[in-house]
Amino acid sequence: MKHARRVTQGVFLVVFFFLFLQTESKGTDELGYPVKLFIDFDPLIFLSTILSSHALAAALYLSIILIVLTMLLGRVFCGWVCPLGTLNNIIGSMKRWPPREKARNWFRVKYYILFFILTSSLFTMQLVGIMDPLSLVVRSFSLSIYPAFNYSVNAALDAAYKLNVKGITTVADYVYEISKKTVLAFQQPYFTQGVFVGLLFIGILALNLVERRFWCRYLCPLGALLGLLSRYPLLKRTASEGCNACGACEYSCQGNAKPGDPGTWMPTECLYCWNCDDMCPRDGVSFRFSIKKAPAKLDLGRRKVLASALAGAAAVPLFRATPVFKSGYPDPGLIRPPGALEEREFLAKCVKCGECMKVCTTNGLQPTLFEAGAEGIWSPMLVPRIGYCEYKCTLCGQVCPTGAIQKLAFEDKAKVKIGTAMVDRSRCLPFAHAIPCIVCEEMCPLPKKAIWFEETRAMNRDGKPVEVKQPHVDLELCTGCGICETKCPLVGKPGIYITSIGETRSKENQLLLGSRESSPSL
After folding, report:
1. Neighbour count for residue 198 (Cβ, 10 Å)
2. Residue 323 covered by a domain
């Protein structure tokens, strides 16, 4: 069974990486098999999304399958399927452990984290994506590990080309062609918090060198939820009367489920790895279906459970006592993807998985830090100076697992405003320096250009008249796609920039303070 588990873990890890690589534009506006399929089976996201938004994406009902399986078979997902659990296993196996590894009795911590998250969700604050293992691993690979991998492969191939040795160059060409078709991104992705997100992920993996499956044992809120669901599983571990408490099963236990004494086994912590069965020298351990209750109880302490729940409730006003949520004071730089729900609804559904950022064809979608407040950390925002919103692209809505970004048909997306362009006359070349430039108008993708010119004469330093076309923005036509800012030839701060003002999703964030009701078209 141990070998069967390892094979199964390997298969699911390969499937995860395959789906992850498929979550990318392939030249069309359709995705075949996005990695959000793993998140669709996540019961923690299922539950927290219901509590926070009182709505649910239809795909998340797949998580009911995992709920039923957990109630019947225990935490088999953690031991056999979870990609982060498998990576933890791999890292933990790199260290030689002493015969009597000292395990910490911290298993309750993950339950307190779970109650904190669910209580905050009940008060409409969605924090689950920060620590949910599936969101965490997808986000970490999307924003950090995969970009670093792409950069490393391209740098190695560039170094091979620079050697200019015929045999090495030929091999490099072959490797590049194969890699480009299989594992490399269409273009090198860059993300503003890649280092931060990557170091957090590496730190989680490094904890396995402190204790095997440290994250799974002590910190994982999804593991805690599955533990609660598996308190009375039908598949139970039993030990024969020949057990002499040798401790072999304790040493091999991945979940620290206390299998040494038949009366202390904890099904809530058991990952059903079958190591204890394979390691038992007397062949006295077996897993069988039984309706008898498990002997050990899950004692979390009422006061600590209550304290963690109260902390989750108290975090809501603490996180939201910020001008970000003040009416009439929107952050002009917080430009959400097309199809994003109104900000409060968006934050109640977004699980910060990073899939929308991975599929953005221009790399314009970047993770927030505190632009959307503490609860909005790692949610997507468009940074036009890095990349614009492609006019005919709707991929971000296709991969969103919770519906925080709605899936739009192209006809509908073309009508959605995510912001408005503004001309900075102190920087724009025709205004500030009498230098002719028409790049912003040329780049505008709308059938009827949202940028129009006023032809005028300007004087240069020598007093000679210069014919220039000074750009202006049509407020009704501009959708805020940002291509004008991206393509502005000025280095650094552009002469035209995008703000979130005028976005379709908000009745508050409009151009004039007194025109929200009288001028809904702005």
Report:
1. 18
2. no
List pLDDT tens digits, range 138-196.
999 999 999 999 999 999 999 988 888 888 888 988 999 999 888 998 889 999 999 99
Residue 412 placed within a domain? yes
Domain boundaries, position 460 = 328-515
Q: From CA 123, how far away is CA 348, in angstroms rounded?
A: 10
Same domain for 247 and 350, yes or no, is: no
Evaluated on CA atoms 453, 456, 461, 465, the torsion sign reads: positive
Nearest CA to 227 among 450, 355, 44?
44
The gap between the terminal CA atoms of the chain, to the nearest Å, is 64
Check whether residue 335 and residue 416 sit in a common domain: yes
Instruction: Clarify whether residues 127 and 204 are in a common domain.
Output: yes
CA 7 from chain center: how many Å? 27
* CA separation for the pair 377, 352 (Å, rounded): 8
Written as one string, the DSSP assignment of 462-502 is: TS-EEEEEEEEE-TTT-----HHHHH--SSSS-SEEEESTT
Task: Based on the fold, state whether residues 332 and 285 are members of the same structural domain.
Answer: no
Identify whether residues 279 and 349 lie together within a single domain: no
Cα angle value 126/128/130 (rounded, 5°) = 110
What is the 3-class SS of 159-195, one letter each residue?
HHHHHCCHHHHHHHHHHHHHHHHHCCCCCCCCCCCHH
Residue 223 contacts residue 75 (beta carbons within 8 Å): yes
Residues 282 and 378 in one domain: no
Instruction: Extract the residue ranges of the chain whose pLDDT is less than 50.
Output: 516-522
Instruction: Report the sign of the C-alpha dihedral through residues 145, 147, 150, 153, in that order.
Output: negative
- The CA distance from 290 to 233, in Å, is 8
- C-beta neighbour count of 455 within 10 angstroms: 9
What pLDDT, on the 0 to 100 scale, is given for residue 463?
A: 81
Convert the pLDDT of each residue in 279-314 to its tens digit: 676 676 777 887 777 666 788 889 999 999 999 999
Is 301 domain-assigned? no
Q: How far is CA 187 from the centre of its chain?
A: 20
Residues belonging to the chain: 522
The answer to whether 270 and 257 have CB atoms below 8 angstroms apart is yes
Q: Is the whole-model pTM more than 0.70?
A: yes
Note whether 104 and 235 are same-domain residues: yes
- Note whether 33 and 90 are same-domain residues: yes
Domains in the chain, number: 2
Residue owning tokens 């927290």: 48
Last residue of a domain, one of 289, 306, 340: 289
